[in-house]
Amino acid sequence: MTRLMAAAAAFALLAGAAQAKTIAVAPGPDAQERLQTALLDAKPGDVVELAAGRFELTDGLSLDVDDVVVKGAGPDATVLSFKGQKGAGEGLLITSDKVVVRDLGVEDTHGDGIKAKGSDQISFVNVRVEWTGGPSEKNGAYGVYPVSSTNVLIDRVVVRGASDAGIYVGQSRNIVVKRSLAEFNVAGIEIENSYNADVFDNVTTRNTGGILVFDLPNLPQMGGHSTRVFRNRVVQNDTRNFAPKGNIVASVPTGAGVMVMANRNVHVFDNEIDGNQSAAVMLVSYTETFDDASYNPLPRDVVVRDNRIGRNGWDPTFDGGKLLAMVSGGTIPPVLWDGVVSWNGGETARVRLTDGPVLNLNLPAPGELAKARPKVAADVGADLELAEPAAVVLPKAQADLGT
Predict the structure, then answer these.
(1) DSSP-assigned states of every residue in 73-91
(2) Torsion angle, CA of 38/41/46/48, rounded to 10 degrees?
(3) Residue 146 β-bridge partners
């Protein structure tokens, strides 16, 4: 009986593969209806193939079928334009598993560019999301936006003009962000409230802040941890902050290279960090009020080592930055840490910062700048042993997409 069931399952799998089809969609009249119909009619294993050309769309698109590839002819050849979008939602919303979006461009969505919610094995490969009018608070918040998802691959993605974060992964697990370009966004790449992320071989430039690793309170998933940020170029992040007021990234200072806030077990190494006017690397606590007793607002178990740090911190734009630069010899040192070491009597915030000099503000509590006792040291915690997070391993079929 067991052999019979196994044979039946294998036959069903082969039959499904044999029935998988390619659904071709071309630009032109009624593109909105034809493309959304293709996404609705797709079956597991199908490819929705978008021809080269410009798709003029008037509403958002959605996909809730597992194991579908949405594929264009290239990020500059196949363009989904949402300039005429009537609603304020995302361009494409994905709520299913094992979905690949690749080889296409998305422009001028009123809301987020491409959002995946609650997806497993979600992959974005060779995709461009752009707001063609340049930086504006009226642009959508996020370019590529997987949230509450597992096994996330973002590879060779380009995002320009997002009013929050170009590449944003929130409340997710097992994440790879690589070989991508984020420019002219408020935050280039942001990992928020997520577990186990590798961010490497990317370029973040001309954003307000280059790469952010944050953890925020009062969200379904908190306690973000285990992120590696390595082999990235974080250079010339100099765009004024154009986030709408009230957004958490509205507080990111222009010219922040790498910023770690309230996250744990974050390792920043082997990056090129240059030309960021506020600071190369900033480790800061969350300073807004919150009522979640389980939340720890401190960055802890953070390692900053072996980065190639150029000229940064010559004109800091955060509160008190110019005075701190003055007392530090004219510029903010390569690494700035607020120096808060404990919260509510809990774990000590350990850091290993060897890319000095390090400016330690020695704050007694988050945000208490008036009580700062700034000190510049060659390093902080150089003798600490803080184990590096394990490399993220994606399912093989998904990992093969990025080879």
Answers:
(1) S-TTTEEEE-TT--SSS-S
(2) 10
(3) 116
Rounded Cα distance, 83 and 320, in Å:
41
Interatomic CA distance for residues 371 and 368, integer angstroms: 6
Omega before residue 146 within 30° of 0, cis: no
Confidence of residue 88 (pLDDT cuts 50, 70, 90): confident
Q: Where are the alpha helices (DSSP H) in 256-400?
A: 321-327, 396-399
> Phi first, then psi: what are they for 199, rounded to 5°?
-120, 110
Neighbouring C-beta atoms of residue 6, cutoff 10 Å: 10
Reported as type and span, the H/E element at residue 8 is helix 2-19
Please say whether the dihedral angle defined by the alpha carbons of residues 230, 232, 235 and 241, taken in this order, is positive or negative: negative
Which range among 8-17, 95-104, 326-335, 347-356 shows the weakest confidence by mean pLDDT?
8-17
Counting residues of the chain whose pLDDT is more than 70, the rounded percentage is 96
- Across the chain, mean pLDDT equals 94
- Residue 248: strand, helix, or coil: helix
pLDDT the model gives residue 3: 58
At a CB cut-off of 8 Å and minimum separation 6, what does 46 contact? 20, 21, 22, 23, 65, 68, 69
Q: Which amino acid is at 251?
A: S
272 is written with which tokens? 């090129």
CA angle (189 as vertex; 183, 191 as ends), nearest 5:
170
> Are 102 and 123 within 8 A, CB to CB?
yes
Q: Are strands 308-309 and 209-214 parallel, antiparallel or unpaired?
A: unpaired
For the chain, how many residues are written?
A: 403
Task: Tally DSSP H helices, then E strands, for the chain.
Answer: 4, 31
Does residue 242 register a pLDDT over 50? yes
CA distance linking residue 175 with residue 154, whole number of Å: 8
Model confidence pLDDT, tens digit, residues 202-227: 999 999 999 999 999 999 999 999 99
Q: How far is CA 53 from CA 62, 70, 149, 249, in A?
A: 20, 15, 31, 35
Distance of alpha carbon 229 from alpha carbon 140, whole angstroms? 26
Residue 351 predicted with pLDDT over 80: yes
Longest dimension (CA), the chain: 79
In this structure, the strands spanning 335-337 and 358-360 are: parallel
Residue 308 DSSP symbol: E
